[in-house]
Amino acid sequence: MGEMLGAGSPEEDGGDAGSWHKPGRLERQLMSGRQKVRGAAGRDGLLEGDGDALMSPCLSPDYAKEHLAQLQEKAELIAGRMLRFSVFYRNQHKEYFQHVRMHCGNVMKPSLKDNSGSHGSPTSGMLHGIFFSCNTEFNTGQPPQDSPYGRYRFQIPAQRLFNPNTNLYFADFYCMYTAYHYVVLVLAPKGSSGDLFCRERLPQLDISSNKFLTCCVEEGELVYRHAQDSILEVIYTEPVDLSLGVLGEISGHQLMSLSTANAKKDPSCKTCNISVGR
Questions:
Q1: Three-state secondary-structure class, residue 184
Q2: For the chain: N or C, fewer Cβ within 10 A?
Q3: Which residues share a beta bridge with 215?
């Protein structure tokens, strides 16, 4: 079976309906490598992963808020235009969803974030969450049909995870020796344990006005947009019931080589690294 939920209008913020499909920086980079836009469409966060995260000489074990603010500024420089979307999605193997249904009461449970991304990220091995993506293909306005994480995709209306009762945080900005970059964001319901964790450690973003992921009220309805030129990895900090969305099988390929699970950040990239004094 194919996609069960469609994406929202592809019209970009401030643009007209006829110009939304123009490729941005990310799409041109991905196309040059014969790849389409692929976000973290639902990888598992695993405690410690392979346990051998390398430390760059210029990085301290944990970024402070001011360091993350510097990373955020760098990420904003390449975020690009904002495109509309309406669903978050998570890809996994069939066995994962079978386990959720049979042994977890049909509820996906948060797991501990792995060591992917910046070595100084305060979320690695500390924050519990569920990975989602929201990136859409520039030529269709729909979620991509390929994924590194499995052929089965859970799609959930964006308002179920992201609304005025949710806080949004910037968590990381990195690349894996590639031309395109990943931005890690955290969605946490206000007052939740995840929200309290992030409030102490991560820069908070205005949900209606930022360069990465927005939720705005327009003509009485919630409208969602994502950055065109960054691949967003969205961590939701609370359990998610499968009954709130739709599960289907994608028609594309499973490209394991593009997985970011425990991915090590390129310490030489000038676009996404900062200097942190000891």
A1: strand
A2: C
A3: 224
